[in-house]
Task: structure prediction
Amino acid sequence: MIRAIVSGAASPAGGELVRLLLHHPDVELTVACQPAHATMALSSVVPGFIGDTSLRIAETYGPADGDVLFLADSSEPDFDIDGPEASDLRVVDLTGILEGHEGFVTGVCELNRKPLVRGAKRAAVPDALTLLAVTSLLPLMKGSLHEGEIVAIAEGIGPEHAVVAAGRASQIMRYAQLGYNGRLKISTAESGESEVRDLSGRVRFMRFMAYGIPVNADLKHVQEMYDEYFDDHNFVFTLPGRKPHPIDVVNTNKLLINLEKSPADGTLTVTAAFDPVLKGSAGAAVHCMNLLFGLHERTGLDLLALG
Result:
């Protein structure tokens, strides 16, 4: 069994991580840390866990307490993660707090599955919109079908996060040497459909639309290129004929992509959506852990849509 530590267990991302890990067949949750709630029952702090666990919240943890450490809030570890005592500890960072430390692979699993499987010990999961934008454009960038500016609209996120995501997404693509030499410009739009929240108020549906992309290929070829790229991946699927809706992805680790070409000017529109709490955060972190430990990607992530 993989022994897991969650730092920030009472945070929104940490609570969702705990929920996934408690039902993961290959994981034992050994430490749930949140100093402000130390010694309290986890079920009394995070709603929904009554009857699921008797674990109490810890104030501190050490590298010997687990095989993998998830960082779900801005609290830095109490030990040197680069020290010899932590040499065998896997780390999955959802916060960026460890940026600058060596050995972190960007946790976009559809981009970096090979490095994550082949000896990596650390993964840094980007923000949800960066994950959504990068993943949905990977086949286009990989095929070098477009090198100019890509203009996009995001729903389910604030404008300040869109600016951050545009920078993160372009940086990840550039570092991955995917052949994309342009810019990614993301703005935000209000949409009634994107206002899908759970009982705790968290946004559960995020949609990204890149439009007006000049592509010198017909829609069938682009569709085939996308299907081929994601053929051996377990969570990303193309959705012909219509744009993805909340009923398709909420409470799952799926990312769905619709492709359309304008009959007027032949430009391509890529529309992608997922649940930012799962595929955009906690689910992505568990996906990274599965790869770091050589498990099947879907382990612990076979989740059904609420619809």
Summary: The chain has a mean pLDDT of 90. The two ends are 33 Å apart (CA to CA). The helical segments are 12-22, 42-45, 109-117, 128-142, 159-175, 219-229, 246-249, 278-292.
